[in-house]
Amino acid sequence: MRGVVFTGDRGVELRSFPDPEPGPGEVVVRIRASGMCGSDLHTYRAPAAAESGALVVQGHEPCGEIHAVGPGVPVEMAKIGDRVMIHHYWGCGTCPDCRTGWPQMCSVIEPRVPTLNEHGGHAEFIKVPALQTIPLPPSLSFKAGAAIGCGTGTAWGGIERLGNVSGRTLVVFGQGPVGASATMIAAALGARVIAVDVVRRRLDAAEKFDADTVLDATAGDVVEAVRELTGGRGAELAIETSGVTPVAKQALDVLAPWGKACFIGIGAYVSFNTKETLRRQLTILTSWTLSTVQQIRCAEFVVSHGLPVDEVFSHTWSLDDAVAAYEWFDQQRDGKGVFVP
After folding, report:
1. Cα–Cα distance, 200 to 122 (Å, whole number)
2. Whole-number Å distance between alpha carbons of 10 and 322
3. Inter-axis angle of helices 177-188 and 292-305, to 10 degrees?
4. Residues forming beta bridges with residue 196, ordered by sequence position
5. What is the C-alpha to C-alpha distance for residues 289 and 89, in angstroms, rounded to an integer?
6. In the chain, what is the greatest distance between 2 CA atoms, to the nearest angstrom?
7. CA-based nearest residue to 8, from 52, 58, 46
8. DSSP symbols for 118-173
């Protein structure tokens, strides 16, 4: 098979690998869609390692069809031709975290993660434990399944961390793939969503995804604008998806007393002085992707509310276009890309 690898310093190559063979308890999935995630860029931009070693295939948002089934996998769990999403972490399978659907929190072994220590989905096939496959609802496309596996699912996980958003004002900082999904989901749940970004195209997309108000962060003071929109009180809720430290500060500053902020973006430093914030009674949360159970719930919600998750993807690429795809994605000026092998 062919697969996309990062060679360091924004280097991308399409290399040949042996077709995977499923072992006991494993399946091989033929990839039909593999999403590009903002977290890919941390590896893409990293310097080339002094000792290159074996490179793994990138892409941790795969979705496709069961191509081969290993020994010991019950037919009720997986059979050839099944359409499946993939929960892109796996652990020991027996500890409390794994058993509750959080293998990325496994306390027994280092979790296995496509793109880090296992081959990922920017390829023609991927091998995974059968337990990590999740049925893709018939009405959802493979692209939607890829989005729910990480970007859209990460937004769902953050919203679940905040709790009830219905009837409340939620400021979503960043309207990239995760932020756009948070806007779409929260609006469908009945929140009043204020979407913030610095890119006009992303703000236009947020309006299409039913944001109540969009704010261009380059046009003025976001915190003051939110206070004006909320009668001076501030927002009950905020989600930060950009991973940018000054934006993380804004996410705290826009909150009303008793407000909650959930931080999803990778890389921001979040700090506060207790003398300045103590009497505001704030709740500060972090959220890391989602559990297998949440992935199922997210897909069911997307189906029941007819959410246009496919539209989170603004560009579709072939594996042959991997170099151009990541050069485009590196600019972070548009939506989300997806490979269709």
Report:
1. 29
2. 11
3. 60
4. 173, 215
5. 10
6. 62
7. 46
8. B--SSBSEEEEEGGGEEEPPTTS-HHHHHHHHTHHHHHHHHHHHH---TTSEEEEE
Enumerate long-range contacts of 19-24, CB under 8 Å, 24 or more apart: 19/125, 20/119, 20/125, 20/126, 20/127, 21/68, 21/127, 22/68, 22/69, 22/70, 22/73, 22/127, 23/70, 23/71, 24/70, 24/71, 24/72
State the pLDDT at residue 50. 53
- Tokens matching residue 172: 């979503």
Tell me which H or E stretch contains 286. strand 283-286
Cα distance between residue 33 and residue 141, in whole Å? 9
CB neighbours of 321 closer than 8 A, spacing ≥ 6?
none
Whether the full predicted model's pTM is greater than 0.85, yes or no, is yes
Bin 332: left if φ > 0, else alpha if -120 < ψ < 50, else beta: left
β-pairing verdict for 11-16 and 2-8: antiparallel
* 25-73 pLDDT tens trace: 999 999 999 999 999 999 999 998 755 557 999 999 999 999 999 999 9
Q: How far apart, in whole angstroms, are the C-alpha atoms of residue 320 and residue 305?
A: 35
| pLDDT tens, residue by residue, 251-265 | 999 999 999 999 999
Tokens, residue 46: 């990293």
**Encoded tokens for 285:** 């949360």
Spatial CB neighbours of 19, under 8 Å, sequence gap ≥ 6: 1, 28, 125
For residue 141, the number of C-alpha atoms closer than 13 Å in the C-beta half-sphere is 16
Spell out the domains of the chain, with CATH numbers in brackets.
Answer: 2-150+290-339 (3.90.180.10), 153-286 (3.40.50.720)
